[in-house]
Amino acid sequence: MSVEFGEPVEQVRIRPRMTVGELVEEFGKSGAYNAGALWSAAACYEAMLRDTEATRFFGLAGAMVPGGMGGIVSDLIERGHIDVLVSTGANLTHDIIEAIGCRHYHGTAECDDVELHLDEINRIYDVYLPNEAFVNFEEFMQDALGELGPGSVISIAELLAHLGSRLATGILAAAARHGIPVYCPAVQDSMIGLQYWLFDQTGDVCVNAFADMHGLMDRCFSATRAGALFVGGGVPKNYIFQSMLMTPNGFDYAVQLTGDRPDLGGLSGATLDEAKSWGKVNEEGRAVTVYGDASITLPLLVAAVLERLEA
Amino acid sequence: MSVEFGEPVEQVRIRPRMTVGELVEEFGKSGAYNAGALWSAAACYEAMLRDTEATRFFGLAGAMVPGGMGGIVSDLIERGHIDVLVSTGANLTHDIIEAIGCRHYHGTAECDDVELHLDEINRIYDVYLPNEAFVNFEEFMQDALGELGPGSVISIAELLAHLGSRLATGILAAAARHGIPVYCPAVQDSMIGLQYWLFDQTGDVCVNAFADMHGLMDRCFSATRAGALFVGGGVPKNYIFQSMLMTPNGFDYAVQLTGDRPDLGGLSGATLDEAKSWGKVNEEGRAVTVYGDASITLPLLVAAVLERLEA
Amino acid sequence: MSVEFGEPVEQVRIRPRMTVGELVEEFGKSGAYNAGALWSAAACYEAMLRDTEATRFFGLAGAMVPGGMGGIVSDLIERGHIDVLVSTGANLTHDIIEAIGCRHYHGTAECDDVELHLDEINRIYDVYLPNEAFVNFEEFMQDALGELGPGSVISIAELLAHLGSRLATGILAAAARHGIPVYCPAVQDSMIGLQYWLFDQTGDVCVNAFADMHGLMDRCFSATRAGALFVGGGVPKNYIFQSMLMTPNGFDYAVQLTGDRPDLGGLSGATLDEAKSWGKVNEEGRAVTVYGDASITLPLLVAAVLERLEA
Amino acid sequence: MSVEFGEPVEQVRIRPRMTVGELVEEFGKSGAYNAGALWSAAACYEAMLRDTEATRFFGLAGAMVPGGMGGIVSDLIERGHIDVLVSTGANLTHDIIEAIGCRHYHGTAECDDVELHLDEINRIYDVYLPNEAFVNFEEFMQDALGELGPGSVISIAELLAHLGSRLATGILAAAARHGIPVYCPAVQDSMIGLQYWLFDQTGDVCVNAFADMHGLMDRCFSATRAGALFVGGGVPKNYIFQSMLMTPNGFDYAVQLTGDRPDLGGLSGATLDEAKSWGKVNEEGRAVTVYGDASITLPLLVAAVLERLEA
């Protein structure tokens, strides 16, 4: 027989009060489908975090902060598990909104959106955000942008570090506190961008779109090893992956949590094997995709890995 | 303001060695997307299992047993949490295969299927099943079928109870031991069906396709309240739901774990609200859908609910 | 260079009043993603229909008839392109409903299902079916079932042929007229099943669940070549595929139109390569999957292939 | 009866050599699922294109150009149907690659990606792109960037217009020829960005990340009416939609072709109703989503609408 295969599938056993790490061990023993993939992802992410010579990237796409997943990201920064963060502008907008004391609310997707609009409530699937949050957001942003020195030329990461330095909680605050760069190539494409446009009517600052690439590329050239955890795809996934393309290096570890599918051709659903053809992931790199809603798979993954690392 | 909404979204916090129930509580506090739905599903399923006057149905579709999820079903039967089981034929086939001592194995979906075929290995996504299992399966089945009295007319559930009575472990064994009926409307559509066809070359037994409906419908007419947990859609979901259509009753509790999507029109991805238009779910019935891979969501749900019930 | 690849991707060009066949030719020239797959599926299905020695199977799952796709199936039967049909019970129920003059209606999925229920309207995503259709359906069914000879033992296909012989339009009618067997292993799981249950309170007929397998298996053993078009997965896909498992044959042509995804492990989303490991599809068999909504891909495929065959 | 509903579902009829527009008319008569949605999308897009006072936006995400869909976009520009284009950087990169004479090739997703890497072939699902294309791309880009005046400060759209002015075919060329602005907020996140980084080692040009927002916002403030066609989600969808947020206006027409799903919370799969809660789409705006692979739905939509407009 020429085909090799592994251990027998074990039927999952549930014990009341089992820990998340124990549940994920059961996933490993069953070994099938996305449960099996989640166990493999935990093993890969654990190895990435234990590898003290690896630069750890985190890509954050999807509406994660409005959905309550931002706390996991800021905690990972606080624990020292993220070296470089690449995010969509929307996640950072909602991070600021929470950090300045505004809140998102439990709602429902079965609703009348015109009625919501009349009540000045913005919907993100089943999360509701009252418009007044954007009033406070505008005040914070215009204050913060007004502090930028006239005539200065800054990068997007510098702009975000400036915002983070004025906040006490959340992702931008934790990143600023720990000196972790936050890259956001499409920052214009967010409420941060709209506020900047408002400021820019009178301001005299130039944000150089490409200025951040030098620091990022230098880091990629000098990395001994590298790993990435991708929540969703989008710009963060591509930006992290492409950063290695100009270097002789590639990623040694990659974990992708996505709800997309590969057959549409888009990068967000593309397999990590595909990334090997480009050299983004090394030939012998460990790479695991878990398909599903990251609001479930991210907490599961992180809880299982922290249990392995700290318990 | 006329739109009502709920609690603020809380950012999820991960603690090493937290229990699954504690994680699902965090999902409830974030409240968003499928994580929020999973918390609601746990609350609904807990209420269903605590309601001693409710008849509890379980619909089992998808390749759950080869993926190691059969143990959860048999344990739920053992714990008294299932009154009526409706399954696809495939799950019962693989349940028998495991019960007679054959095993499924960890494999990979990135493989050469022609090579697998030459090696006599059958693939179910990333699970491998060597052909020899079907040799043992045939022996068991022909023995068991040979015991059926010549000239007898039986129902599908009676056929399955007969098989279960000859097994010591697994779903059919647990159901037989506890007197739980197992319905499988499309039993022909499985290896059990193919074995029956083989037996039927010489056998003299008639399996009445519709005979089980009387017992099921009587149960539905007499149910004080009813609840259902659906793993996947397919025949089990429709068969359970339609059983209430002829009665003045409907389901009071319904939880659906599915990877399908509603916009294709098929029942497997249909919302449980749609079921209310048919009267399958009562107007005020609690109904929650969690979209995702049931190999992840079923263990999460059951672990959280058992922790609520037993801890 | 060891990797072989094909033609250059051509950018799709749209010409007003181009035919569907011409559009699918453009898909072939672009060659990518599911558009490319649709072109390959058209080539495969054309070859299947041109192969006069091939037995042509058609598997019909999903809510196709309520969504207006039943006309395509009955037309394919009329044109002689289907030799064996395997369907879910639901599609046949709705086929009868249309054949007896009742109609489904354009509706919307954004609605209040409780209100629909109070108005006695049943919803299938964005299709509405008033309850009164089931009143007429009951009358037709009880009449038809009442004609079955007391004490008789029949197969499911015989039952369906009896129903079809009393109808003038639709799938069952076309199949009866052309002597095409219609298999429906889970017929109980449908309104047809519920009507049979009603009839069975007083009737004296036994529908043998397994009786159809002999005819189907004989056909599979004697087939020179075989092909299948699968709309959706479910019971029809598995039943058609498993019918070859006991024979030395496998399918030479297979086209699958599905909205499911492979990574969940279920058969409905499984690749046709997976089917090769089981021997369901021959090693050198042509097999193409198109992922997407069959309400779009089925008409596209059939229009393109009829244009190739007839134009 | 209080619920209103529409026309009866008509069973789709296929006629050999029917035009795409005729097929889409059949979709309208069936009216169900994504086929029905495609007909509605065609009606909406036709109205948008006939409305001479509407500003027409086009959002381009996903791997559309490598998959052969770029020709449709450049033809729509040539025909005067796009006023503002927002694209991902990747689509523009591949547009340049085709415009300078390099080609993408038909490949397969069932492959050995490490072998592809060794052969210097990059994979995009089932499309192959040899590395040598990037050699030519680098030459073109460095030449073009070298022409930028030292010390100049430009916007991203100006950079892209400069590139387009040096090309004869494709999207950027057509846009440059017709004076259509091409916005690409995340241009860094692409091979164009990497080439710019290379140039920026020695160059002395500042690309102002936010400079394009003024022109875009002015356009939004002055628009009498506005419509958008979204292929995929990502940055283009959000950037187009948010551009109206600061104005008293919203979109009057919106058509979205996406393969994502709403329940994950991300914008790419979000319904257009959700956009109404934000005021991005007007309360009485026409908005239609078609779920599926845009490599199929975009050509279908455009062919049907051009047939309505021109035939």
- What's the CATH topology label of the domain at 56-103 and 132-296 in chain A? Deoxyhypusine Synthase
Q: Main sheet of chain A: which strands, in order across? A: 7-2-1-9-10-11
Mean pLDDT over all positions of chain A: 96
Give, in order, the helices and strands of chain A. HHEHEHEHEEHEHHEHEHEHEHEH
Question: Largest interface, with Cβ-Cβ < 8 Å?
Answer: A-B, 76 and 76 residues
Secondary-structure class of chain A: alpha/beta
Q: Which CATH first-tier class of the domain at 56-103 and 132-296 in chain A would you pick?
A: Alpha Beta
CATH architecture of the domain at 56-103 and 132-296 in chain A: 3-Layer(aba) Sandwich
Largest sheet of chain A: 6 strands, parallel
- Note the quaternary state here: homotetramer
Structure description:
By secondary structure, chain A is an alpha/beta fold. The first copy, chain A, has a domain at 56-103 and 132-296: Deoxyhypusine synthase (Deoxyhypusine Synthase, 3-Layer(aba) Sandwich), CATH 3.40.910. Chain A is built from 13 helices and 11 strands. Chain A has helices at residues 20-30, 33-50, 70-78, 89-99, 113-118, 132-146, 156-165, 171-178, 191-200, 212-222, 234-242, 272-277, 294-310; strands at 54-60, 84-87, 105-106, 121-124, 127-130, 153-155, 182-183, 206-208, 225-231, 251-258, 281-291. A 6-stranded parallel sheet of chain A has the order 7-2-1-9-10-11, with helices on both faces. Chain A has a 3-stranded antiparallel sheet with strand order 3-5-4. In chain A, strand 4 and strand 5 (127-130) form a beta hairpin. The radius of gyration of chain A is 21 Å and the shape is globular. Chains A and D meet through helix 5, strand 4, helix 9, strand 8 and helix 10 of A and helix 5, strand 4, helix 9, strand 8 and helix 10 of D.
